[in-house]
Write a structure and sequence with these properties.
- By secondary structure, the protein is an alpha+beta fold.
- A 4-stranded antiparallel sheet has the order 4-3-6-7. The protein has a 3-stranded antiparallel sheet with strand order 1-2-5, with no helix packed on it.
- It contains 2 helices and 7 strands, in the order αβββαββββ.
């Protein structure tokens, strides 16, 4: 009577079980990373939604344009300040007075030579001496 060797079958099933656990671990890591990315983008969206005045930012050639909408505390908003990651803007460039009732504020030539995606922060200064972040957004400067 011949005796069969079952060791190789056991070894193959252990390999499959090991591969299955590795696959589960990779999937869990990817899910965790996706959840962290989603949580960070939700935090940025909350800053935008909870702002006291709505603003939008666009790039047009070498200019950065901030559109201040006529809502919220627009009548109390006096000055806005922009910050662009990787740039040191001097005060006379970063700070601009807000026209009554809102509108477009043009930061001329501020994006000259700027390329790629940059984080833009817009802070509002109000007549009651408070200031708040109105927008945090990643902007594509092209190039």
């Amino acid at each position: 009577m011949k005796h069969k060797n079952h060791g190789s079958i056991k070894s193959r099933s252990n390999s499959k079980l090991y591969a299955f656990f590795i696959l589960i671990a990779v999937v869990l890591i990817l899910i965790g990373g996706g959840a962290a990315l989603l949580a960070s983008s939700v935090g940025i969206d909350q800053v935008n939604r909870n702002a006291e005045v709505s603003v939008a930012v666009t790039v047009s050639g070498d200019d950065l344009i901030v559109k201040v909408l006529n809502d919220g505390r627009i009548n109390d908003l006096e000055i806005i300040q922009i910050s662009i990651s990787g740039l040191d803007l001097v005060n006379n460039v970063a700070y601009k007075n807000v026209p009554k009732g809102g509108g477009d504020i043009v930061y001329s030539k501020v994006s000259y030579g700027v390329t790629g995606e940059r984080s833009v922060l817009i802070r509002g200064y109000f007549s009651d001496d408070t200031n708040n972040i109105l927008l945090v957004k990643t902007v594509d400067f092209g190039g």
